Input
Amino acid sequence: MNDAKFWEIVKTVNWAKDCNYKRIKHWMLNNLTLEEAMAFRKIASQKWALLDNLVGERNPANGGDDSHSDLLYHVVGLGKKEFEAHLDDFLLLAARGSSYGSEEGYTESFSYAIPYEDDYEKSNDPAQLDN
Output
């Protein structure tokens, strides 16, 4: 998977619509192979790391490491344009980090939407997906 395909998928799943990781995970399980999902996860993690490097010691999320991770994955989930804007301007990231749960803020966590191998094994039984 290349960057263009990654951002195409992010646009398609439209995290900003409702920040519903269950909806997106369901879509991914039905539209991506396991290999594609693993490649998607790898690129999402790389994008997260770019934002994390920007933040360094300055954690804009109040609430600890989990909030920090949620914030950065949220920005990745918003798409290429928002990701690049936040990557270019720490103050945007800091402002978003101070507003958990609001439209201008972030929510948890786009990373939950990305299936793991065991999700594909469970996908024949949707009731198992959150376990």
